[in-house]
Each structure stands twice: as C-alpha cells, then as structure tokens.
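Per your request, structure below.
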C-alpha cells in the first residue's frame, strides 16, 4: 500500500512539474523575443549601447539577457538574423514577374524600407561581425536579386556588358551609401528610395548603353 500510494503521489506531481517547465520555457521565449525586439531600438539610440542598456530597453535583467546571449556580439548576430528573417518574409511577397525593370524598382523600394528599419543593427553588425557571416545571412535576398537581374539581362532590359556580380555589388554599395547619407543628414530618408532607384536605373538599363 505505501508503494502504491507513493506511486500515485508521484503520478499526481508529474503534470505539475511538466506544467511548470512549460511555463518557464514560455517565459524564456517571451524574454528572448523582447530582447531581440528591443535591441534595434537601443542601437538606434546609441550604437555603442551596452548589454545593460539593451537589457533595460527590453525590460529584463542583465543576467536574463546573458542567459540567452553570452556576449554582445552573439546578441548582435542573433538580432540581425532575426531582423533579416522578418524582412525576408516581406520581400518574398514582392511580385517579381512581369516587366523586370518595374519588378527591380519594386524590390529596391521594399528593400530600402526594410533596410531603414534595421539600419542601426546592420551598421553595428558590420563593425562587430565578420563580413562572411553578414554575407551568409543575406544569401536569400541576394539570390532573389540575382535572379531578377539575370532575367532582366535576358530580356534586354538590363545591360549585358557588365556581369551580374558587378550589378549586385553596385546595388549593395548604392543602398549602403544612401543609408550613410541619411544617417549624416545629407539625404532625406523619405526621398532615399527614389534616389536609389533613379541611380540604379540610369546605371543598369540597356537604353543608351547598347
């Protein structure tokens, strides 16, 4: 009888422990999400924001943050990856069929809107993470842009006297330059997308360059 009672008691406690573990896991996931959401805001206010600053922005303790990210660099890496994953969900819905030139402009405009949102994180990441890691995180977006440029070349819309790799490099450089100009106050953020599109259209389109 004692053994039976003990077994029943243990059986009754298991759901409680299981429920507690599930709640702890849910709390941990919520805290991680809060930290990742708060990091861009903290870096926008101060690119040199400390782990303590970011934890305060997220409304969690510093040790809670360290429980998820062992170093500031690890936090920056995770934040950029999370931001790009969210951006990817938006860019995946940009229609790329139809006229390649129009699709390119739509993709650039959407990309700039998203870049503006994560610009502070990207600037810090470029300073603190390896360039190969950042390039790796951009693979899906780069593949999408590459495919569109190749289709545009095949359709005679984009210049064929320059390799696609160069067109991609110029696109990235132009968007990064626009971000720097906006940060420096020399370019209006609301006008940046138009400036980028006009610059790349004049450089890439086949008209006048045959």
């Amino acid at each position: 009888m004692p053994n039976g009672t003990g077994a029943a008691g243990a059986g009754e406690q298991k759901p409680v422990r299981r429920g507690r573990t599930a709640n702890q896991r849910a709390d941990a996931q919520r805290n991680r999400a809060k930290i990742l959401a708060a990091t861009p805001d903290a870096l926008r206010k101060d690119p040199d924001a400390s782990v303590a600053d970011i934890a305060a922005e997220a409304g969690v303790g510093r040790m809670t943050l360290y429980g998820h990210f062992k170093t500031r660099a690890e936090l920056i890496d995770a934040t950029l990856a999370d931001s790009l994953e969210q951006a990817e969900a938006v860019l995946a819905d940009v229609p790329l069929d139809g006229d390649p030139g129009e699709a390119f402009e739509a993709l650039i405009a959407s990309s700039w809107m998203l870049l503006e949102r994560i610009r502070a994180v990207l600037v810090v990441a470029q300073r603190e993470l390896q360039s190969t890691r950042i390039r790796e995180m951009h693979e899906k977006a780069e593949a999408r842009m590459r495919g569109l440029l190749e289709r545009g070349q095949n359709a005679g819309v984009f210049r064929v006297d320059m390799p696609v790799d160069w067109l991609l490099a110029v696109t990235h450089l132009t968007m990064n330059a626009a971000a720097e100009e906006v940060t420096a106050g020399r370019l209006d953020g609301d006008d940046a997308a138009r400036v980028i599109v006009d610059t790349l259209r004049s450089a890439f389109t086949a008209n006048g360059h045959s």
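DSSP finds nine helices and no strands in the chain.

Regards,
D.
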